[in-house]
Amino acid sequence: MTQPAAYINDEDTPKQDSTLKVVPNTKKGRPRSTKSKNAILKATNSLLLHMSVQELSIEAIAKKAKVGKTTIYRWWPNKTAVVMDALISQPGIQSPLPTPKNNTEAIIMQLDKLIRMLDGNNGETIAQLFSEAQADEKAQKIFSGTFLTPLLDAIEFSVQEGQKAREFRGSLDPKMAIDLLCGPIFFRLMSRPADLNEEFRETYPKEAVRLISA
Amino acid sequence: MTQPAAYINDEDTPKQDSTLKVVPNTKKGRPRSTKSKNAILKATNSLLLHMSVQELSIEAIAKKAKVGKTTIYRWWPNKTAVVMDALISQPGIQSPLPTPKNNTEAIIMQLDKLIRMLDGNNGETIAQLFSEAQADEKAQKIFSGTFLTPLLDAIEFSVQEGQKAREFRGSLDPKMAIDLLCGPIFFRLMSRPADLNEEFRETYPKEAVRLISA
Amino acid sequence: MTQPAAYINDEDTPKQDSTLKVVPNTKKGRPRSTKSKNAILKATNSLLLHMSVQELSIEAIAKKAKVGKTTIYRWWPNKTAVVMDALISQPGIQSPLPTPKNNTEAIIMQLDKLIRMLDGNNGETIAQLFSEAQADEKAQKIFSGTFLTPLLDAIEFSVQEGQKAREFRGSLDPKMAIDLLCGPIFFRLMSRPADLNEEFRETYPKEAVRLISA
Amino acid sequence: MTQPAAYINDEDTPKQDSTLKVVPNTKKGRPRSTKSKNAILKATNSLLLHMSVQELSIEAIAKKAKVGKTTIYRWWPNKTAVVMDALISQPGIQSPLPTPKNNTEAIIMQLDKLIRMLDGNNGETIAQLFSEAQADEKAQKIFSGTFLTPLLDAIEFSVQEGQKAREFRGSLDPKMAIDLLCGPIFFRLMSRPADLNEEFRETYPKEAVRLISA
DNA sequence: GGGTAACCGAGACGGTACGTCTAGTCTTTAA
DNA sequence: TTAAAGACTAGACGTACCGTCTCGGTTACCC
C-alpha cells in the first residue's frame, strides 16, 4: 500500500520555482503564521458550504480570513491547492482502516470509505475539484497527487495482492479493475449525487468486488 | 425509444422567459441569420481545438465569428449551451446505430459508440462540459438534457429490454447497471483520457456487458 | 424678421440625402402613418417628463410608441430632431405676439415670451437640447435652425429697427446686443434654473432693454 | 475670499461612501501611483483634442494611458470628474491675477481671464462639461463645485465690494449682476464659439462692467 | 540588543471577461 | 412603398477577480 503523499502544505516552505537549491535549510526570518494558515483553511471550508469551488474566489477567502491575498499566494499555487488543503484539514476525513482479513474485504472497506467521503458537502467539493482538474494542468497535478493517485494506488495494491492470492481474476488489467471499481462511484457522484446514499454504500462495494472476483 | 428532447437550438426562437404565450405563431421581424449561427458554431469549434471550455470566452467567439455579443446571448443562455450546440453540429457526431440482433449487442454497440465519441478533442470538451455542470445548475440542465440523459435513457432502455429477455440479471437495479456500464468510461475519460484508446474500445464493451449478464 | 423655418417634419417626405431629385412628387405606396407620428411625439414628450434628453433613447421611444425603430430613423435624422419636433408639437408653445408699439416694447415682449418658454419642464429640455448641440454637429444644426436662429433673428431685427429709430445705442454691435439680452437668460437657465421664476420674468426684460437703450 | 472647495482629486484617498471615519489616518496598503494618475490625465487631455467629452470613453482613456479601467473608477466617480481634473491639471490654467486697483478693474480682469480660459479647445471642453451637467446630477455637482461656483463666488465678492464702495449700482441683485456679466460670455461660447475672439476679449469686459456701474 | 530576513495586512496595479445596453442598419411580412 | 417587428454588428458601460506589486509594520534568528 503505497503512501505517496503529494502536494499538501505541511512543510512551511513557500512554493518554489522548483529551481533546486542544495540545502537552503537555514530558516531565517519570521516563521509562517499558523494563525493565518488556519484562518485561511477555516474560511475556505466555511465559504464552500455556501458556494462551489468555481464560485469561490481567492479574494473572498482573503477577506473572510482577514488575510492579505499575498499570504495565500505565497503558500499555495492556486485555488485548487487551497481547497484541497482545506478539505484534508477537516477532522475525521482521514480515518485509518482496520486491518482486513483478505483482499476482498480490503477492497470493500476501501470503497466503503470512499463512498462515505464523497457523501454530502465534501463530495460536491471533490467533484468540483475533479472538474477543475479537467482543464487546468496545475489543478490536475494537485488533485491527482493529493487525492486521486493515493486512493487509486491503494486500491491497485489490493487488487494486485488479490490477484496473486487468486481472489481476483488474474486476467484483468489492474487499471481496468480500478475503473470498474471506482468509475461507477465517481460517475454517480457527478451525474446523480443524491443517489450516493446509504443504500448504495451498503450494496455497491460487495457488488463491485464480485465483478472482479475469480 | 431514446428520448431526444433537450435544449438544442433548432427552432429559431430566441430564449424566452418561459412565460407561456398562447400561439404567438405569426413570425414577424427579421428572421434569424443562419450565417451568423453557423459562424458562431464554427468559431466555437475552432477555438476549442486550442483551448478548454473554461478558457473559452463569449467575447472570443463573438470576435472570431465577427458577430455581436448580443447575437450570442440572444440565442443561447450561456457558454455551455453554445459549446453543446457546436459539438452536436459537427458532422458525423450523431451517426445512427445499425439494428442490433439482441440487447447484449445493442449495449455493446452503444458503449462502442460512446467511447468513439469521447475519443480525442471532443472527449476533452465533453469532460469539460460535464465539469461545468458540476457547479452550475443551468449548465447542468443543458448538459444533462442534451447529452447525458438521452444517452443514458437509451442504454437504460436496452438494459430493461435485456432483463425482460433474460439476457441480463433481473435482480440488478437499472440505475446501478448504467453506472456499472458507463461509469468506468467516464472515469477513465476524466482520470486517464489517454487510455481511452482503441484497445479499450475493443475490450471494454464486451467485458462490461458480461458483468451484467445473467 | 426672417422666417427661416428649419427642420421640422411637416412635409411627409422622408429625410433625404439631399441628392436633389427633380420632381419625385408622384407619391406612391403606403402613405405616412400620422398615427405613428403622433404616437412617437407623444411618447417622447411623455418620457421627457421622467428623464433627460441624454437619458432618452430611440429604443425607449420606439418601445413606448409601439413603433419600429426604423420608422423613427426614416423620418428624423437623430434624437435631437425627434425631441425638437415633440417640443414644438406641444399645444400653446408657439403663441403669436401682440403688435408692439415700439422696438423697446418688442424686445421686452420677446424676452418675456422666451423666459416663459424656458420655465418648467420645457426649459430643462431646451437646456438639454442646447447641450446636445455642443458636441454633435447634426444636433447643433437642428437646434439652431429650429429654435435658436429664428429666435435670435427676430430679436436682432428688433434691435436693428430700434437702432434706426434711435431707441437703442447705434454703436452697439447687434450680435453683442443679442448676447447681452439673451445671455443672462440662458446662463440662468443652465446654472440656476430654479431662479428662472416669475420675479425674474418681470424684472429682467426691462432691466435688459435699458442696458442697450440710447 | 473665493471658496475653492470642490471635488478635485488632490488627496490620494479613493472615492468614499462618505461614511465618515474618525481618523483613519494610518495609510495602509500600496500608495497611489502618481505615474498612473498623470498618465490618465495626460491621455484625457490628449484625446479631448480630437473628440468631445461625450465621445470620450473611459475605455479609451484607459487604453491610451495603459492603465486598467479599475484604476480610473477607483479614483474618479465618473467621466466628468476625470475631464475636470485633466483640465485643471493643465499648466497655466490657474494663473493668479495681479492685484487690481479697484473693483471695477477686478471685474474686468476676472472677465478677461475667463474669456481667455474659454478660448480654444479648453473652451469647447468646458462647454461640453457644462452640457453634461445639465442632465446628470453628479456631473452637475462636480462641474459646479470645481469650476463654476469658485468662479462666480469670486465675481460676486468683487461685485459686493464694489457696491459697498459705490462703484456699482447698489440696487442690483448680485445674482443678477453675475448673470449680466457672465451670461453673455457663456452664451457666446455655446452659440457662436468662434466669436469668442480677441476682439471680444478686449471690448466685452469694459462694456459689461459699465452696465453695472453706478 | 541590534541587524537582517522573511513574514504579515492592506490595498493599488494592469488586465480580462462578464452580461447589459444603445446606436444605427438590415431584412422580413403585412397592409 | 411604408410600417412593424425584430435581428444584425459594434462597442461602451461599470463590476468582479485575477495574480503581481508595494507599502508600513512585525516577528524571529544570529551575531
Q: Give the name of the CATH architecture of the largest domain in chain A.
A: Orthogonal Bundle
Radius of gyration of chain A: 19 Å
CATH superfamily of the largest domain in chain A: Tetracycline Repressor, domain 2
Most extensive interface, chain pair and sizes: A-B, 36 and 36 residues
CATH class of the largest domain in chain A: Mainly Alpha
- The CATH topology of the largest domain in chain A is Tetracycline Repressor, domain 2
Shape of chain A: elongated
- Main sheet makeup of chain A: none
Count of runs of 4 or more consecutive helical residues of chain A: 9
Mean pLDDT of chain A: 89
Provide the low-confidence segments of chain A as ranges: 1-7, 18-25
Binned strand content of chain A: under 5%
Number of domains of chain A: 2
Helix/sheet category of chain A: mainly alpha
Helix content of chain A: 55-70%
Oligomer: homotetramer
Task: Write down how many β-strands of chain A occur, each being a DSSP E stretch of 2 or more residues.
Answer: 0
